[in-house]
Write a structure and sequence with these properties.
The longest helix has 13 residues. The chain is 14% helix and 43% strand. The chain folds into two domains: 35 residues, no CATH class; 135 residues, Alpha-Beta Complex (Nucleoside Triphosphate Pyrophosphohydrolase). The strands form two sheets. Strands 5, 6, 7, 8, 9, 10 and 11 form a seven-stranded mixed beta sheet that branches. A four-stranded antiparallel beta sheet has the order 1-2-3-4, with no helix packed on it.
Length: 184
């Protein structure tokens, strides 16, 4: 995001917030992003950019892997991924992983072992760009019973045979992480 200040020292400043060459500007107060949006030139829809750091876990138990299904109805066929989610402020990735596993699956896990870190940038359906950094662990079963999350980013949790994953609509990062976990 480009933030170019054009009126230094005044109570009102103008900032450009888009890509190079964008003619959309904002008149703001003392801080960027507060105030009125002015359109210059043709209509231009500005997308937001966001970075999200998340922790996920690969749990393989008795030849099956625990997965969760996206609750987004636009994913057709439904998209599956690893249990996990966003790291809260001040929370360690390991604590996030343990918390998210219980929230999304009802399962308790232990002994997180780092598998790797991945990063990608993608565009959401609304045009926003998101940069996701995923910290992925291999975990062991500690207890609990599989259950579904209610009113979250996932709506179903389940065990899946490793041999059946090829036929599933599985997030790329999840497929790679499961493969890595099996090879280590």
């Amino acid at each position: 995001m480009i933030g170019t200040r054009s009126a230094v020292g005044s109570k009102e400043s103008t900032y450009n917030f888009c890509h190079e060459g964008c003619r959309t500007t904002f008149v703001t107060g003392p801080e960027p992003g507060v105030g009125q949006r002015l359109e210059l030139g043709r209509n231009h829809l500005m997308s937001k950019q966001h970075t999200s750091v998340r922790a996920y876990g690969v749990l393989v138990h008795d030849g099956r892997v625990a997965l969760v299904r996206s609750s987004n109805p636009n994913h057709v066929p439904p998209l599956w991924w690893l249990p996990g989610g966003g790291i809260d402020f001040g929370e360690s990735p390991e604590d996030t992983l343990l918390r998210e596993f219980v929230e999304e699956t009802g399962l308790e896990v232990r002994n997180p072992m780092l598998l790797g870190v991945s990063s990608d940038v993608r565009r959401r359906d609304n045009g926003d760009r998101i940069h996701t950094v995923r910290v992925v662990y291999r975990v062991e079963m500690a207890g609990g019973e599989m259950q579904h999350e209610v009113h979250g980013t996932t709506d179903h949790a389940g065990w899946f045979d490793l041999a059946d994953l090829e036929l599933m609509n599985l997030a790329d990062y999840a497929r790679a992480a499961i493969s890595d976990a099996q090879s280590k």
